[in-house]
Write a structure and sequence with these properties.
198 residues; six-stranded antiparallel sheet; two-stranded antiparallel sheet; 5 helices; 24% strand; globular; PspAB-like
């Protein structure tokens, strides 16, 4: 950072650290013990749209990367676009501790593939879904450009109105403070309404 940057109050952006995703399995244990939320076995990666041939190659690369050689086509992966034009990749694994660790590895691998393929600037976030006995949803969202996590707790079914359970989000933040690097700026706890994986 140069003198002019310091004078004008500019700072260097935080370098993304994808290895922070590997803290999610221990955070899942904390969340289950402290709040009764268990993993759903679903996780997703969101990135700005990639068009044409590049998108087709990306889909092929991701499917090849996540093919576990089980003879069943590997990890189930779906691609979709939301109302804002962002692309979501949804991966599924069993909803247990082993499946959660494997899902985190999948999300890390996809993020790394995108970053190394020159799509790093398009990466927005990754999330891991959770539910409790009352069927409430909670996602732990990793902000790629900030290198931080935050909880997102939508209320009700998708399309039934956009409300958040702020109390649950703050409870999750308090529980996970020792497990994850939590985003301190609450203004950056962006809602991800209808995100695959919730």
């Amino acid at each position: 950072m140069g003198f002019l940057d310091a004078l004008l109050g500019r700072s260097k952006p935080v370098r993304p650290d994808l290895d922070r995703l590997f803290a999610l399995p221990s955070a899942a244990v904390t969340l289950q013990a402290g709040a009764g939320f268990t993993p759903t076995g679903r996780g997703s990666v969101c990135f700005a749209s990639v068009e044409g041939g590049a998108f087709t190659r990306l889909q092929q690369d991701v499917r090849a990367l996540l093919d576990t050689g089980t003879g069943r086509g590997g990890v189930p992966v779906e691609f979709g676009r939301d109302a804002y034009g962002y692309t979501w990749l949804l991966a599924r694994r069993p909803a247990d501790a082993e499946g959660t660790a494997a899902l985190v590895n999948d999300l890390h691998a996809v993020n790394t593939l995108l970053q190394e393929g020159g799509f790093g600037p398009q990466l927005l976030c990754s999330l891991l879904g959770f539910r409790d006995a009352e069927r409430r949803s909670l996602a732990l969202v990793y902000l790629y450009k900030r290198g931080t996590f935050y909880p997102f707790a939508p209320v009700g079914e998708p399309g039934a109105g956009e409300k958040r359970d702020n109390g649950l989000e703050l409870q999750a933040r308090a529980l996970l403070r020792d497990d994850l690097r939590i985003e301190e700026d609450l203004g950056r706890w962006f809602p991800v309404w209808g995100a695959p994986g919730l």
